[in-house]
Amino acid sequence: MDTVSDNSGFAGRSVVVTGGTGALGAAVLDALLRAGANCHVPYRSKLAIQNSPHRDDERVTFVELGDLANEDAIIRYYESLPSLWASIHLAGAFVAAPIEQSNTALLKGQLDANLVSAFVCSRAAAAVFRRQGGGGRIVNVAARQALEHRLGSGSVAYTVSKAGVAALTTALGAELAKEGILVNAVAPSIMDTPDNRTGQPRADFRAWPKVEEVAATILFLASPENAVTSGAVIPVYGGA
């Protein structure tokens, strides 16, 4: 790992990262660890961390939590943390299905994975921040479709769930800003990951934002350096 830096004020601070076992999650953890943070990663099952490059890092605490939309489990998890500076919500799921192949079960699954998980984690984090006396950062992940709804053609359930994440971020940001709790989100286009390259082998990968680039934006929004931005949903499209 690179030498720890405290340029962004993360040294010794605790940060929750849901979805920390994915490609973007690994990039976010890399950036946080370089900045000196202590990271807490709730995950669904042991299978999720088998390939994580951080599974043996002493500054990353993995906890098997199962369903991240389970409010009771999430509240207990956040209450068990020794302290908390930021909560970063990367966990989610994508299903592409035209409307005739969609149903309420698919919609519920997309809402739980993307919106409900972000909602319950944001709520639990806000409660911890308030008990600590205020201040803190929440960062969600929406999607380009959340801002440009027409791009959601063929994946309506996913688009609805991510549009909800964008609305959650804006409304909660307005509600909590006066307490020094800043809530923001990034809205990526398709990112340059091995899985996405496999799924779209003819695409121009150079136009896709790199996970490290998206992670850098997330890190700023979660950092003490961000003193004024709240309620924003920031496009991170690269050249896509």
What does the model show?
The chain is α/β, with parallel strands linked by helices and 240 residues long. It has a single domain (14-236), classed as Rossmann fold. It is built from seven helices and seven strands, in the order βαββαβαβααβααβ. β1, α1 (23-34) and β2 form a beta-alpha-beta unit. α1 crosses α7 (211-222), α2 runs parallel beside α3 and α3 packs parallel to α5. The mean pLDDT is 94.
CATH fold name, please? Rossmann fold
CATH superfamily: NAD(P)-binding Rossmann-like Domain
Number of folding domains? Answer: 1
Question: Could you state the oligomeric state of the chains shown?
Answer: single chain
CATH class: Alpha Beta
Radius of gyration: 17 Å
- CATH architecture grouping: 3-Layer(aba) Sandwich
Strands in their spatial order, largest beta sheet: 3-2-1-4-5-6-7
Number of strands: 7
β-strand percent reads 15-25%
Q: How would you sum up the major sheet?
A: 7 strands, parallel
Tell me the series of helices and strands, N- to C-terminal: EHEEHEHEHHEHHE
Helix content: 25-40%
Report the span from N to C terminus. Answer: 31 Å
Envelope shape: globular
Low confidence ranges: none
* Helix segment tally: 7
Overall pLDDT confidence: 94
Structural category: alpha/beta
